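I hope you will forgive my troubling you with a question about protein structure. I am sending you one protein, given as its amino acid sequence and as whole-number tokens for its backbone shapes. Thank you for your consideration; the sequence and its tokens are set out here:
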Amino acid sequence: MKCATSETELLRAISTSSWRPCGTSRKNLFRSRSHNWIPFAIGERKANDHRMTQHLEIHPLTKAAFAPFGDVIEADPATMRYINGGTTERFHALSGAEAIGDGARVILNLFRGQPRAFPFTIEMMERHPFGSQSFMPLNGRPFLVVVAQDEGGKPGRPQVFLARGDQGVNYRINAWHYPLMALGEQSDFLIVDRDGPGNNLEEYFFDTPFIIGAPTL
């Protein structure tokens, strides 16, 4: 039996019994949870098959594909108008901020995201019931956008999009999404979202984790 010596090979151990991690007995394989490798018995595999990881494909971010979740923020020529004596191109009303509830307001923030390491495990999603949330990169670097359709009050299978460095997104109210996923190096983002009373965060943790491989930049 071949011995697994890398994280990629350990992932293979999840779906085949022909691999095992080095330094462990034949009865143990490993699975990933929050990027920590946790042993479990092979005898438990059959009963726990529903918990095996699933791999997610990465797709280019487009307005049409992202429409069920919100808006893509980019310099759309159809929205452009000249202002300031013709010296400035204004790309008008690319999206709208939402903030509902007594005492709620729209605020501007800076987020500084650390780069994610791959393969990456998606074990949860979140949504904001009282406000939208937009992300616009300030360093011109691409980032990943992970969203899911609502299925009876919980997220369905996640969808993954690669946003260019000149694209941002605005998640509409109650759109399931994963937190900020910077790529390559530390990156700053301008965030427009809601401030105010009430619990504006709902989280859901999957029974079955999902895996994202390294994107091609």
About this structure: The helical segments are 7-15, 63-66. DSSP finds two helices and 19 strands in the chain. The first strand starts at residue 2 and ends at 4.
